[in-house]
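User: Quick sanity check before I run a bigger batch. Here is a single chain. Can you write out its predicted 3D structure?
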Amino acid sequence: MKLGIVGLPNVGKSTLFNSLTKAGAESANYPFCTIDPNVGVVPVPDERLDVLAKMHNSGKIVPAVIEFVDIAGLVKGASKGEGLGNQFLSNIREVDAIVHVVRCFEDSNIVHVDGSIDPLRDIETINLELIFSDIEILDRRHAKAVKAAKSDKKALGEVQFIERLKTFLEEEHLAKNFELNNEDEEGWFSEYNLLTAKPVIYAANVAEDDLADDGVNNAQVAKVREFAEAEKSEVFVICAQIEQEIAELDDEEKKMFLDDLGLSESGLEKLIRASYKLLGLISYLTTGEMETKAWTITNGTKAPQAAGKIHTDFERGFIRAEVVSYDDIVANGGKSGAKEKGLVRSEGKEYVVKDGDVIEFLFNV
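Assistant: Done. Predicted structure follows.
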């Protein structure tokens, strides 16, 4: 999974990126300090892996990972080359979802490019630039489709589809809310890879005092939540500066620090939970003496396709899956104990994998 962190300059993007990845992206109180997109790969915290590894004397633990891309601050006119322009918009096209950092705190020492704190205005600024960039993509595709339509009736259908979609965007709607009527339209829409079609998670960056109640009493956060609900997006509240401090601590110190703040989880954990929910992702687990590993799949994936995540040969030669729930393994002291109780099931090609399934695949080479 790849997430792109975006937002206006000086909203806390690079600070958040630093805290999530410990990658040391430069952070400063001026626009465009992030000149190239920084990339960091972060393991997904999952205590189930530690438990399984101890039970089965695994040689190593391999968690699922998320790749974060920190993209330079966008400004009005970015789609036309203002600021650092289109090169950053193109970086967003490569991600699975967008983490949109919005500033919900007052601090006279940190400059805001528009002179005041207004998260909905900031969201609109970014969304408009993404829309303008998408319209440029559609214009280029439209020109090709018009030429093709002279000899291809299907291309004529695409021309009409593009015109309808472009009108929708010009009315300042996001592509993800556009209604698709048939398989052809779904195919074309997928090919365009539009920025405003991507799922969005809003990171409401607040002051430390607003963390304990999850921003409930912050009027700016309330506005972001209302907007996100209408857009079917996720929101999580974070203090990027605090997250950066947490990132320097070991696990025990981190827990104490969070307890002192009245928090049960870090911003990274909040973000991962929101990302998995938004993208409809779950994890199944494999365990043994060699390794214990988490595999990320889409909710609803059947056993052969889940096996294909490990190796394509597993999917092609799939025979069956030996499945036991994580809870049953823990309750019975390990996989062998669960097997003795008859809790290990043999599942076929139609089995839909569930979060926390511990699976061993049987296949023909």
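The longest strand covers residues 291-298.

User: Great, the batch can go ahead then.
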